[in-house]
Amino acid sequence: MLSMTKTKKISLFLLLLFTIIAIFGTFQFSHQEQTVGKVMEEKTVHSEKQVDEHGNTDKLTTQQVKLLILNHKYKGKEVTITNTYSYSQIKDHHYHKNEYVYIDVSHQGKELFGTLLELKRDHFLIILVSLLLFLLILIYDLSGILTFFSFILNGAILCLLFWWYKQINSHLLLLLFIAGIPLIVTLTLTVANGWNKKTKIAITSTVIGSAVTFLIGFLVIELLAHKGLRYEEMELVTRPPHILFLSSLLIGCVGAVMDVSMTIISSLYELTQTKPNVTKEEITETGKKIGEDIMGPMINIMFFSYLSGAIPLILIFLRNNMSFNYAFSIVLSLEVARALVGSIGIVLTIPLSIKLTTFFLRRGALNER
After folding, report:
1. Rg for the chain (alpha carbons), in Å?
2. Terminal-residue alpha carbon distance, the chain
3. With left for phi above 0 and alpha for psi between -120 and 50, is residue 365 left, alpha or beta?
4. Domain residues of the chain, as ranges?
5. pTM
6. How far apart (Å, rounded) are the C-alpha atoms in residues 187 and 193?
7. Quick one: CA torsion of 103, 108, 110, 116, rounded to 10 degrees?
8. Which of 106, 123, 209, 296 could serve as 26's disulfide partner, Cβ 3.0–4.6 Å?
9. Per-residue pLDDT, 353
10. Other residues' Cβ atoms within 10 Å of the Cβ of residue 16
């Protein structure tokens, strides 16, 4: 059963208070830039079945949505807007009574006209983030808070890198990431685990493992002149697509390597704490067994996480009578490349982490003083 310390109770109470205030703030519409409306009534006026040349069917439904405007110039007035949505609702939405939406309102004479922009979802996002933080505090206490803080910190660093990239030469994104990755790794592991010898070994292992893995992937891709990689999904991007891909490849390498590295080093560190007289051979053998246990699941996680996002697009291609080979090459070539390089990183990091741990142990670096 989870123990509730005084600090944990105070943290959970403050989180609940913050969540209530944040959700309350999302409904203070006068402070929001976009016009917000509440759906008062909605009714279906027309429904039509459509069939394309490949035999795929869809259903288009037209509804009339009566909205009460909640802020800005037309606050308190009502406007009726016609909305058309498909059965799949991929690019549109079926609006229901009491939902809040962002709208664009104009007038011609005394008559108001409006356009539905999107559903207002910010309060749902606050609830999800608060739920995550609640579970982190409830189960992991201070370490959970530090984990969440490191996540926010890394997000801020990445946003700063992207902002900087927007201001400078379009070919420098990869160099920015190469320069920023050691900082991200150091902050993540230090905030989560503190500045100790275990963290130093994990940082060293992550940086070396990520660098070697990315270098292997980069050399293979460059030697093959990017053959087999299809950048069509980046056709709307105005920056060099191969630079963006290589940058995402580097980020993926760091994520995979850091996870495996910290798992193995933490386990071996705990072994040395519970059994101070453990030999280097025992540490190596234990590390190998841990590596064998986590390698398979981690590689599968890499493939599933990268490929899962492409499933909807693959189905669209196949439903439109495109061959599997064509759909695979267009949609999955970049995802498979990321997954393969990340898997190489997992395989390389296991022996690297074991070697670094035994090396520092031999010098007495793992024994906390």
Report:
1. 26
2. 33
3. alpha
4. 32-119, 168-368
5. 0.80
6. 10
7. -10
8. 123
9. 94
10. 12
